[in-house]
Design goal:
About 0% of the residues lie in helices and about 50% in strands. The chain is an all-beta fold and about 110 residues long.
Amino acid sequence: QVRLVESGGGLVQPGGSLRLSCAASGSDFRRSAMGWYRQAPGNQREFVASITSAGTTGYADSVKGRFTISRDNAKNTVYLQMNSLKPEDTAVYYCHPIGTGYWGQGTQVTVSS
C-alpha cells in the first residue's frame, strides 16, 4: 500500500525557515517526478515545486528564489527547504508523485508573528 508521510511543518515567524520532508513507502518513486503542492483555507490546491527523477526542478513564481526542492532516492524521500517565509505561505503542504493519484495527509505551515 502506497503511503506518503509529510512532516516538518509548524508555526514560524515571517522571514523564518522550515524544511518539509515527504517519506514515500509502498512503491518505488525513484523514477517519478515528485511535487509539492499547498492549499490555503478557501483556496484551491496549487503547485509549489517539482523535481524530476534526474533532478530537474521547477517552481511557482511565488516561491522562486525562496524555496528549494530536493530528493534522496536512496531514502525515497523528497524535501522542501523554505526560506524567507511570508504570511501568504500559510497553507497545508502536500507531496505528490506527479502523474499518480497518490497524496499524503499534508503538513500545516503557519507563518505569523
